[in-house]
Design goal:
Elements (H helix, E strand, L loop, with lengths): L2 H24 L12 H16 L6 E2 L8 H5 L1 H15 L11 E8 L5 E8 H25 L12 H11 L6
Parallel strand pairs: 1-2
Antiparallel strand pairs: 2-3
Length: 177
C-alpha cells in the first residue's frame, strides 16, 4: 500500500474514534439516559480494541482478549472522552504509527468456552482495518438507542463505508452516453 492509503486508514479510524468521543460527550449533558445502560459497554469494547493495537503490552504482539475491560469507562463518559481523545490524537499522526505492512502476531482464545489459544500472523494495516470495521459495527448497535433518546449522531453513523458509498452512488443520476 502507498503512503496515502496508510494516512487514509489512520484518519478513518481517527474519525470513527471521534464519533465515539462525541457520543460519549453527549452523555455528559444533564437529563441523558445512563451512559452505562447500553452505550458505555460498546464504547469501552471499541476503545480497548484500539488501545490494544496502538499500545500492545509486547511490541509486535496484539492480544485483544487480554484487554482490561475497565468498567469505569463504561460508567463515566468524561473518562471515556479523555481516553478516546488520546487514541484519536495518535491516529491523526500516521507518521507515528507502524507501516500498514508491519508484521504483527495476534493471539486469541478460540473454542466456544475459550479453551484453546491461537496465534495468527497479521499486519498493522489488517488489524487497523479490523478495529475500524469493528468500531462501525458497534456504533450500529447503539444507533437506535441514541435515536430513541434524541442523542445526535452523524447521518451515516454505524454504516460501513462501502454501504455509504453504494447508497450515494445510487442517488447519482445516470449519465446517458
Amino acid at each position: 500500500m502507498n503512503a496515502a492509503s496508510h494516512a487514509d486508514l489512520c484518519l478513518w479510524n481517527a474519525a470513527l474514534v471521534g464519533q465515539w468521543r462525541t457520543l460519549a460527550h453527549a452523555f455528559e449533558a444533564p437529563g441523558r439516559p445512563r451512559f452505562g445502560l447500553l452505550v458505555g459497554p460498546h464504547l469501552r469494547h471499541v476503545l480497548e480494541h484500539h488501545e490494544a493495537l496502538l499500545w500492545p503490552a509486547l511490541p509486535g504482539l496484539v492480544r485483544y482478549d487480554d484487554r482490561p475491560r475497565d468498567a469505569q469507562v463504561e460508567r463515566e463518559p468524561a473518562l471515556a472522552v479523555r481516553r478516546l481523545a488520546r487514541v484519536e490524537a495518535l491516529l491523526r499522526q500516521p507518521h507515528r504509527l507502524p507501516s500498514l505492512d508491519a508484521a504483527l502476531a495476534v493471539e486469541l482464545r478460540v473454542g466456544l468456552q475459550g479453551e484453546r489459544n491461537a496465534s495468527l500472523a497479521s499486519s498493522f494495516g489488517r488489524e487497523l482495518a479490523m478495529v475500524g470495521s469493528h468500531a462501525v459495527h458497534h456504533l450500529a448497535l447503539v444507533v437506535e438507542h441514541c435515536q430513541t433518546y434524541a442523542i445526535p449522531l452523524p447521518a451515516d453513523a454505524g454504516r460501513a463505508p462501502a454501504t455509504v458509498a453504494h447508497a450515494r452512488a445510487a442517488l447519482q443520476p445516470v449519465q446517458e452516453t
